[in-house]
Amino acid sequence: MNRQRSFIGFIVAGAIALLVIAIAGFYWFFAKSPANLIGSTSQPGAAIFVSKLSPVMVSLLANPDRLQALEREEELSKLKTSLFAKSGIDYKQDIQPWLGDEITLAITTLDIDRDRENGQQPGYLLALATKQPEKSREFVELLFSKRALAGANLAVEQYKGIKLIYDNQEVITEEKIQNYLAGAVVGEGFVLFANDPKVLRDAINNVQAPDLNLASSSEYQKASKELPKGGLAVAFLNLPIVAKWQGLELPEQLYNSQIISLALNPKGLLAETTFLTSSEILAPSAPLSKPVGALQYIPASAGLAISGSNLSNLRESDLAKLWRQTTATIYGSGEDVVSRLAKPLADIQKRWGINFPEDIFSWVQGEYAIALLAEKEQITPHWIFVVEKSENVEQGVTRLDAIASSNGLSISPLTIDKQKISAWTELTTATKKTDVKERASFSIETKVRGLHTTLGNYEIFTSDLETMNEILTTKDNSIIDNPNFKDSIAAIPLPNQGYIYLDWTKSQNLLERQVPILKLVEVLGKPFFDNLRSLTVSSYGTDTRALKGGVFFKLNNS
């Protein structure tokens, strides 16, 4: 009997509730500014119930009622009430008195009965910390008694001193399988729910045989050391098993595990993540102790800005390997996601017949900055590329000029605000019929396909004259002077490998066109996305067996 769907409703509702409560809490934090809104512990205690072979475990390390102080228009209360409405359970009366400071959700096994003939049947475990064991036992009894009154057939057993209550699988029907449930109170600390009593038995075994549980895993222990203090939520992923769960055989498996932590920052929300490997890894470039100077030529109006140093070894860097492994795990292939997210750059490659890694990245060994400037009604964004001058850069510019010429473009000198510029131009003809003899008249138009110039110690490339003019005439209004950008990078530790900065309000329309599914994500996380101002990504850390990075989310009212 396939029980994969049996616990789905309960688990999905619980997971969505946690995410919505957390996201809503993060948002309303900035309006209410409550004191001491940090995780009660840096690590989830429920890890002792979870197998070493679990693909994923997610934990909220704060009581939902601590986020209740952030509530507006009773949204969280409505959520918790609706979550238990069908069960006849009242959250405030039946759960709130005993619920502690941790809620953990885990996929404990890929297949409960290990029988390939009936398909994969993942085991789900929900662990709720309790501060009043007796009241939590009363809750479990109440929950299952209500199920019995509703027509469920229950079974009760003692397993290693723990009382298990669950739906009797011998008489459960396909219609009732959606609501299949097993529960127990273990010791003085946790209430457990699962989609099969075997999942509960395995959880109890994991506690009594410590070498079986996740908490005893050396990989998990190493990852846990990377967790910051006071995080509100944490997730741990066993990457090879996640890939196996998705039915994928990865061509490249560099990283073994990943741990993610969410923490509040005075200016927003910081999500830190660490990827662990047993191999020696090297950073793609030397760490930077301050933002690169190339950013001074990126206008404050940029919707996307990427900065750092040394692109020459990017293709074979461990960061690139991580990208290939992650996208292959999520999408099956990294090609489609790249073509969607970087479509403007992919279009340039196709139009010009160039290869970015070979024709551009290979000679960028100093500082660089890349930016997209997107307007609401603009389908194709304007782009900027700034690179620190060197002998290799001069050779690279010469090579790009040659590629432009081979594509039928002319190298034309221009002057803007007394600045000498080289433009890649294309001559085209336009026709117009006259009214008198109905003969066609012709005119010649010059289209600019790209420009470059030297400013200080940097070579600057742009897609069009307007963008180049903005750079030359607004030198005191760069992204470095943008208060939002300054706040965002201030939340990222130094030294680091540079930044990827996305101004959500300026790039939202562009991103939605390139990634249509993003609109669905926005609907699910509406309170968050409605108030998202920007996000900033960076990698940092010096451990040669771990790749560490963070994403900082800045909200409108922070």
| Form type | elongated
Largest sheet: 20 strands, antiparallel
Low-pLDDT regions: 1-37, 69-73, 171-177, 330-341
Radius of gyration, CA atoms, in whole angstroms: 28 Å
Q: What distance separates the N and C termini?
A: 51 Å
Q: What is the mean pLDDT?
A: 77
Q: Quote the beta fraction.
A: 25-35%
Could you tell me the number of beta strands? 20
Summing up helix and strand content along with how strands pair, one would put the structural category as alpha+beta
- How many distinct helices? 18
Could you estimate the helical fraction of the residues in percent?
Answer: 25-40%
Note down, in words, how this protein is organized:
The protein is an alpha+beta fold and 558 residues long. Helices cover 32% and strands 28% of the residues. It contains 18 helices and 20 strands. Helix 1 runs antiparallel to helix 3 and helix 9 (318-331) crosses helix 10 (334-341). The relative contact order is 0.11.
Key terms:
558 residues; alpha+beta; 20-stranded antiparallel beta sheet; 18 helices; 20 strands; disordered N terminus
